[in-house]
Amino acid sequence: MPYELKSARYLAADVLSRAVAPGDTVVDATMGNGHDTLFLCELVGEGGRVYAFDVQPQAVENTKKRLEEAGVLDRTALYCLGHEHMAEKVRGPVSAAVFNLGWLPGGDHSVTTHWETTQRAVESALELLRPLGVLVLCAYPGHAEGDREREALMGLLSSLPPQRFNVLWHKFLNAGPGAPECFVIQKQKE
Ligand code: SAM
Q1: Which residue, judged by its Cα, is nearest atom 2 of ligand 1?
Q2: H helices of the chain, where?
Q3: What pLDDT is attached to residue 111?
Q4: Residue nearest to atom 14 of ligand 1 (CA)
Q5: Ligand 1 centre and the CA of 36: distance in Å?
Q6: Is the confidence at residue 118, as pLDDT, over 90?
Q7: How crowded is residue 97: how many other Cβ atoms within 10 Å of its Cβ?
Q8: What tens digit of pLDDT does each residue of 47-61 get?
Q9: 3-state secondary structure of 184
Q10: How far apart are CA 190 and CA 175, in angstroms?
Q11: Per-residue pLDDT reduced to its tens digit, 32-43
């Protein structure tokens, strides 16, 4: 097959499929319509655990339906709750945490992620990661809150100590202002 460079979302899925193993505990910080939650359920298998958060009841309903249809609901804990409360709910350590920032596709665009709460959640997720665990974030600049969130995220991630974390930034430089960007943070070995 010819090799083709792929987008932020593809990289996120590729990293997760390598970093997550059957039996693991993982977090979906923004469940939305449940695509990532389902993908994580498949990666952790029957013996694993997927914690997922969203502030919108509609998102939780959509996700629950998707997981029920796939027969994997019993390996999840779904919370209609902001991801900033992650530390109160998740029993770590986790091998991966996923953030797909922004708004619910097909939903209310005014309900988007905001840096103040994203920051608290990202800091919690970094603490919950086991050694070599990964935090995978997709950010969508190109609208006011998305730009603000992405700038602040760059600041936080750039300042992480390299003795504790490796931080990767993936974007197509010539794709225009709204192109998604993927950040992968891996906790160092102890
Ligand atoms: N990963 C999802 C999927 O596979 O369909 C898409 C996620 S969507 C881009 C972003 C989601 O973040 C929206 O559903 C929105 O309701 C949710 N969100 C906004 N603020 C949040 C918060 N503080 N905590 C958790 N979720 C939040």
Answers
A1: 32
A2: 8-19, 35-44, 57-70, 86-89, 115-128, 144-158
A3: 87
A4: 32
A5: 11
A6: yes
A7: 29
A8: 999 999 999 999 999
A9: strand
A10: 38
A11: 999 999 999 999
Indicate whether residue 32 lines ligand 1 (CB < 6 A).
Answer: yes
Ligand 1 lined by 36 (C-beta under 6 Å)? yes
| Dihedral angle over CA of 185, 187, 17, 136, nearest 10 | -30
- With a cut of 90, say whether residue 75 has pLDDT above it: yes
Strand-pair partners of 138: 100, 182
**Does the beta carbon of 49 lie inside 6 Å of ligand 1?**
no
The ligand 1 atom nearest the CA atom of 114: 20
pLDDT value of residue 104:
86
Cα angle for residues 86, 98, 187 (degrees, 5° grid): 85
Cα gap 131→187, rounded to integer Å? 5
Q: Is 101 left (phi over 0), alpha (psi -120 to 50) or beta?
A: beta
Beta bridge partners of 97: 27, 135
pLDDT at 145 exceeding the cut of 90:
no
